[in-house]
Structures are given as structure tokens and as C-alpha cells.
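Incident log, support desk, overnight shift.

02:14 A customer reports that sequence design results differ from what the structure should imply. Their input is reproduced verbatim below. On-call engineer (initials T.W.) acknowledged and began investigating.
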């Protein structure tokens, strides 16, 4: 029996070497926000994107201006022909015994959008005596645990158990829905003697697929330390990578529709096969 194949059209924009050399915005629309090129199907302003999912809000209150993906209100720092990269991660912030002790779980739901979490991302946990569990429906599909030997102002090292750990996202499959939860492994009396806060967030791996991540322990002192520092003292600010597709028809049909996304003469439409 032949395997079932699903054909999905992937509308590819310019290759990276040409992306900055051509104007990809719709006529009459802005082609950039600050220093960042905004290629179609993304767009700034009314009727400038392929759909509301690709609307970009350009915030001119900063210098240079910053581009935000409107449906998520997260800053875009890179547009690619198959993915975007977002600053400000999806995050759990759990400060046990403090007034902010109210967010120990996280749900990321991209269903119904053109986006999915890339398998280049990992779930990262920083903290003391916590377990991260990742769910798929009622099933637990993975997790990791973090422990601290003592309280010190030194940063942590290679993110293996000592105050930091990683959990893979997706295992090669597209991920449009993710649920995760932080579980306290210590007693509250022990928490008060060590560090009260722990965090879990989605983070892109580096280009070499390294998972090294260091941070100062004062991030765990209270609920505002990390927020005020905005990751500046960490080894690298967390960035989330989202893959994207435009449309579910094959290319031959899409070319004859009035919503065809490959408008630029150098753009490419390719059929994507999922077995």
C-alpha cells in the first residue's frame, strides 16, 4: 500500500542572498520598519499583508523603530523565506511564596495560524529544585529537572541540571500546540532559604545547535530582577523561531487564485510533501 502523501504549497520568498536586494512589499506599502526589511506576505499598514496573520505593527516610539507581529504582540528581529525569529519568549514565571505565585503553566496555541514552533527551539528552565513537564493532551511527552547545590552570585554553566536544563520541542514534527508546567520539587521552607523564582521559556538553539546558556543567580531572587535586566546579563537573550506557510493548495491551483502570495518575479512557489 502506497503511503499517504499530503501536498501543501509553500510560498517561498527570495533566497537570503537576494532578500535585501529587492523590494518585496506590495505597491504603495512600506518595505521596511527601521532597519528591518518587511517582505510580502508580511506588510505594514492596511491591505499591505497577505492576511491579518501577517500584519506587522511598526513601533516608531523607539530609535530605530521596531517591528511587531500584530497577532502575538512580539518583536520580529528577522524575516526569512520559511521562518521568522521573535524576541521576548513565551515564558513561565513562578516565584514561590511571593505575590506573583500564579503562573506555573504555559500554553502556546498556534492552531489556525500559518505559524508553527520550529524544532530548532528548546524549552529551557532556569531555577532551583523544579521539574518542567511538557504535555500533549493528557499525555506527558517529556521534561527535565533543575537543582541548585548552593546560593552563589556566580552564573551557571552549560545548562545540564545545575540550575538549568533543556527539553526538546517537537522531535522533528511541526508543533502548533504546546503545554508545559513547572512543578516545585522542594518544600516551601527550603525555598525561602534558597532562591524563590524559577522560569521556563522557549528558546532557539544556536546555529551550531549548542544549548549552552548562562545567567546570573540574582535573576532568581525576586519577580522583577529578570524583568528589569531584560536578559542583558544572560549569555544570550532568548529568541523564538517560528516556521510559517502560506496556503494549503498546490502551486498549480494557487497560481490561478486571486490570493496567490508569490507576487515578486523572483519569488518561488514549491509544493511541500508530508508523508
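02:41 Re-run completed on a clean worker. Output:
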Amino acid at each position: 500500500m502506497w503511503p499517504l502523501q499530503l501536498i501543501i504549497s509553500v510560498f517561498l520568498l527570495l533566497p537570503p542572498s537576494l532578500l535585501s536586494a529587492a523590494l518585496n512589499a506590495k505597491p504603495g506599502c512600506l518595505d521596511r520598519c527601521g532597519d528591518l526589511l518587511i517582505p510580502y506576505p508580511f506588510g505594514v499598514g492596511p491591505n499591505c499583508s497577505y492576511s491579518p496573520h501577517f500584519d506587522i505593527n511598526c513601533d516608531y516610539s523607539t530609535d530605530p523603530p521596531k517591528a511587531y507581529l500584530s497577532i502575538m504582540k512580539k518583536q520580529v528581529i528577522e524575516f526569512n523565506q520559511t521562518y521568522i525569529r521573535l524576541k521576548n519568549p513565551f515564558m513561565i514565571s513562578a516565584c514561590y511564596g511571593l505575590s506573583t505565585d500564579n503562573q506555573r503553566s504555559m500554553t502556546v496555541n498556534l492552531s489556525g495560524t500559518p505559524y508553527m514552533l520550529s524544532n530548532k527551539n528548546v524549552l529551557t528552565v532556569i531555577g532551583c529544585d523544579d521539574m518542567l513537564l511538557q504535555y500533549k493532551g493528557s499525555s506527558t511527552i517529556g521534561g527535565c529537572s533543575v537543582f541548585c547545590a548552593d546560593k552563589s552570585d556566580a552564573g551557571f554553566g552549560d545548562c545540564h541540571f545545575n540550575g538549568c536544563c533543556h527539553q526538546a520541542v517537537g522531535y522533528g514534527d511541526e508543533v502548533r500546540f504546546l503545554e508545559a508546567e513547572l512543578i516545585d520539587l522542594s518544600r516551601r521552607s527550603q525555598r525561602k532559604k534558597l532562591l524563590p523564582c524559577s522560569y521556563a521559556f522557549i528558546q532557539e538553539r544556536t546555529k551550531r545547535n549548542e544549548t549552552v546558556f548562562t545567567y546570573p543567580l540574582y535573576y532568581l531572587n525576586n519577580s522583577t530582577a529578570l524583568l528589569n535586566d531584560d536578559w542583558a546579563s544572560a549569555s544570550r537573550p532568548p529568541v523564538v523561531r517560528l516556521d510559517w506557510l502560506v496556503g494549503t493548495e498546490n502551486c498549480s491551483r494557487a497560481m490561478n487564485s486571486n490570493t496567490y502570495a508569490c507576487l515578486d518575479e523572483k519569488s518561488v512557489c514549491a509544493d511541500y510533501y508530508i508523508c
